């Protein structure tokens, strides 16, 4: 039976005049039940059961692989099976309808039909007659299959099937949009999970390196300073002044190396970020910078860990650029959370640079590796980095990250 070109006007004549407007209103209500596939399919199942005077309706929707159908909506009590029943295309009556894009009517003795595959959880043996119709969008994209069943024998007429096809065509577009929304949401969740995993892996490696430096290099440097002190005490100052001087220089070098190792440990994994959150981490970072007078404007807000880590690293890189390249006397670090957006800004009154030259002063890389690294970190957590600079007018680095307002980390 051809299905092309069906629309709202095709409802006319398939139901009584009094029922026509009510049915169209029911279809509008069902397709307006929200962006979710399951809520919409549930509303569709209830509406079709009433419209066709059947006992139960199953709405099978094509899954995201386009290779099987999943039960997305059903008349109670079968709504408990939503999401649990899957049929490969070509399997069962629904799979056959999906593959051939043609309706099927079985008046009785379903078990004798070679296309029929019993599904215990849907209690097919309780129902005598069934009709199944494809749901398609223009110009013929399959969305799913509608099945209606009756306990008593029913001779489904061509008008009944035409009504199912019309309803299927009218709701297919909305269900297709719901599927696209679900796929987009899944991709967004996958991206967020990927970002968290990447940042977690990076931080895990930083923890390992920090531990290796602390347990290995730092401990050996401490032992070296003890031995140098002992050597200095054992040397006769009057006879070996030169040896004493060299030992003192060696000890100074060991102390300097130990300080650099401890600084590297702090840079690899600052414990204050775990204990005090981003605001505390930024304040601690600022206190370690003596070359520039820093002003802080920090909101006491906790964010998801992977976002806090990303913003901290961006601030760390920005402040290193300020110290190394800007020749600034003062700088400002601002962190705010408002209207579902986290915002970090690091600005200085230094020499600035010309963005058109695509080169950060003091670096050998076009565009500046640090800038690229910061932009990648921001994008990894769904944010955006912007740099405003002009020769003689300083530089401002701004990061904005939209937040999921439902995340519990933002409501503690």
UniProtKB/TrEMBL annotation:
- Is Transmembrane tagged as a keyword? no
CDD domains named among the record's database cross-references:
HATPase_UhpB-NarQ-NarX-like
| Cofactor (UniProt) | [4Fe-4S] cluster
Question: Which parts of the sequence belong to the Histidine kinase domain?
Answer: 311-405
Q: Where in or outside the cell?
A: Cytoplasm
Q: Recorded E.C. number(s)?
A: 2.7.13.3
Q: Name one Pfam family in it.
A: GAF_2
Q: What does this protein do?
A: Member of the two-component regulatory system NreB/NreC involved in the control of dissimilatory nitrate/nitrite reduction in response to oxygen. NreB functions as a direct oxygen sensor histidine kinase which is autophosphorylated, in the absence of oxygen, probably at the conserved histidine residue, and transfers its phosphate group probably to a conserved aspartate residue of NreC. NreB/NreC activates the expression of the nitrate (narGHJI) and nitrite (nir) reductase operons, as well as the putative nitrate transporter gene narT.
Q: What is the name of this protein? A: Oxygen sensor histidine kinase NreB
**Record lineage:** Bacteria, Bacillati, Actinomycetota, Actinomycetes, Mycobacteriales
């Amino acid at each position: 039976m051809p299905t092309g070109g069906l629309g709202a006007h095709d409802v006319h004549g398939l139901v009584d005049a009094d029922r026509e407007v009510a049915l169209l209103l029911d279809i509008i209500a069902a397709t307006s039940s929200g962006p979710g596939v399951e809520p919409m399919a549930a509303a569709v199942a209830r509406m079709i059961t009433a419209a066709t005077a059947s006992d139960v309706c199953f709405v099978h929707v094509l899954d995201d692989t386009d290779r099987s159908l999943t039960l997305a909506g059903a008349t109670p009590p079968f709504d408990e099976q939503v999401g649990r029943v899957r049929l490969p295309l070509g399997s069962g009556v629904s799979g056959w309808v999906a593959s051939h894009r043609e309706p099927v009517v079985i008046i009785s003795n379903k078990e004798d039909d070679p296309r029929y595959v019993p599904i215990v959880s849907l209690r097919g043996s309780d129902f005598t007659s069934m009709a199944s119709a494809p749901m398609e969008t223009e110009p013929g994209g399959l969305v799913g299959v509608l099945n209606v069943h009756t306990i008593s024998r029913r001779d489904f007429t061509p008008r009944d099937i035409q009504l199912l096809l019309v309803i299927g065509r009218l709701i297919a577009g909305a269900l297709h949009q719901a599927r696209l929304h679900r796929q987009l949401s899944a991709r967004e969740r996958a991206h967020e999970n990927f970002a968290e995993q990447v940042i977690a892996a990076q931080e895990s490696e930083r923890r390992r390196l920090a531990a290796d430096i602390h347990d290995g290099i730092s401990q050996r440097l401490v032992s070296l300073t003890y031995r140098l002190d002992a050597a200095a005490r054992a040397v006769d100052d009057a006879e070996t002044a030169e040896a004493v001087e060299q030992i003192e220089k060696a000890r100074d070098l060991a102390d300097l190396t130990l300080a650099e190792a401890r600084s590297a440990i702090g840079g690899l994994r600052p414990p204050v970020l775990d204990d005090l959150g981003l605001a505390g981490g930024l304040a601690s970072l600022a206190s370690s910078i003596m070359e520039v007078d820093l002003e802080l404007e920090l909101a006491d807000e906790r964010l998801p860990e992977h976002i806090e880590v990303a913003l901290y690293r961006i601030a760390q890189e920005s402040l290193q650029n300020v110290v190394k390249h800007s020749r600034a006397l003062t700088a400002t670090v601002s962190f705010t959370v408002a209207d579902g957006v986290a915002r970090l800004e690091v600005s200085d009154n230094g020499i600035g640079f010309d963005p058109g030259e695509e080169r950060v002063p003091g670096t050998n890389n076009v565009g500046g590796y640090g800038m690229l690294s910061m932009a990648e970190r921001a994008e990894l957590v769904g944010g955006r980095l912007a740099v405003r600079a002009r020769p003689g007018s300083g530089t401002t680095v701004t990061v904005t990250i939209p937040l999921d307002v439902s995340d519990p980390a933002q409501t503690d």
